[in-house]
Structure formats: structure tokens, C-alpha cells
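Minutes, project check-in

Agenda point 3 was the complex the collaborators sent over. CS summarized: two entities, 255 residues total, and the question is how they sit relative to each other. Sequences were read into the notes so everyone works from the same version.
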Amino acid sequence: MDRRKFLGLGMAALALVPATSLHALDFRKEKPDAWTAHTVDDSIKALYGDAKATESKDVTLKAPKVASNGGAIPVTIKTSIDAKSVAMFQDSNPESAVAVWTVPEGGTVSYTTKIKMKKSGTITVIVEDKEGKLHSATQTLEVALGGCEG
Amino acid sequence: MGKMKVKAKAKDGVVKAKIQAKHIMLPYDAAKKKGVDANFITHLVGKVGDKVVYEISTSQFLSKDPLFKFEFKADGLKDGDKLEMTWVDLSGATETASKKIKGLK
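CS then shared the predicted structure for the full assembly.
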């Protein structure tokens, strides 16, 4: 039942994907493949195509080095880059994409949210600037208690 | 009170917002174990009037009762302006909450 429903969801989502550029606002509707990709690289490719990301000091990613509760890990992302979108991935959950922010005109990138990680791993953040260039930052952290309820 | 708490305060030209949503955020793994459908917020938008100031597409990997903090410029905003947050989840349900931004002149 579960699998059938999930496949159905996938088909419906695929049918809706127009071939537009990345200023689409609802990434879940526009880039469904990004959300089912199992590795960080696949998610990045599904979201941004083949653009390569460069590690950048202008992207600040803050997360605790050791998360005592894997179900609620606070992560803060800041950047001074004039960004179009910001995406967060991690490599320890079954699917890699965690969240994608669309940066509104004149918006400031200073985002905090709490995420779940099943076990220790690496969080990757990609900032897409107005020219389509990708800037990245990563942080590895340990998770003391897994966050996906098993 | 509803399923979302919105707090926003303007200082030095920047509005800092803190949103606490109440949502089970049940990932596929856990849902399977419980024998129910997965359900989690998939999209959250923040607007002041008709101007979008925040937009995030999310996954099952955000914490239960997720917290969102963000900032945006207070340019053009005035006393009485409200920050309106709307989320949509996997089941198609939506929830909206709005609150007056404090500290605006």
C-alpha cells in the first residue's frame, strides 16, 4: 500500500515538472528528483544540474559538533553572497535533501532551523548566487542519539 | 492558539523572525513502523502584505514541531505590518498564522 502510493506520488509529481529555470519557488513541486536522491551529489545534480560548487568562506554553516539529540539539531546558515537559493543536504539519512530556501528579492540569508539526522554525518550547504554559481560549505558532526526514531 | 507561533521584531532596519510550528513531521521510516502515512511540512512561506520575505521547501528531516528563524530587511515596512506565515504539508493541509511585527515605526 505504501509503495503503490509513493509511486503514484512520484508519477504525479513527474507529470507536473516543467522545464523551467531555477527561479521556481516551490522546490518540492519543481524538482521532485532532488527529494528522492539518496546521495548528496545526486541531490545537488537534481537541483542545480551539472554546475560545480566551490567551497566558500562566505558561507557560514553552524551546527553543534556533537548533537545530543539527533531529532532536533539546530543548524544556522548565513552568507553575505547575493543569493538566489540556499539548499541543505546531509549524508546520513535515507534521502539526502533536507531543505531548500528561495531567497526573496532583498532578502538576508540568516536561517536557522532544526533537523533530524539518523546518525553522525556531514551537512552540506549550497548557496546559489544570482549568476547561477554554486558556493558550498560543509560540517561534520556526531549524533549521540539517532533522530529518525530508529 | 493554533498550529504555529509567530514572533517578529524589527531592530536597526532588520526584522528577526522566529516561527514555531506544531507538526508531527513523521518521516517515511517512522510512519511505516507505526503503520500510518508519513506526513511532514513540505513548504513554508512568510509574507508581509504581498511581499514574500521567506520561503523554504522542506523534507521529512526537519525536527518534530520545527523551529524556523530568519531575518529580512525592514525597508518599506511600517508600524502595523504583519508577518504572515503559511505552511503546506504532504497531506495537502495548510495552516496560516500571522502576527504584527514589533518595533516598526
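Noted in discussion: Chain B touches chain A through 34 residues (CB under 8 Å).
Follow-up: revisit at the next meeting once the mutant set is ready.
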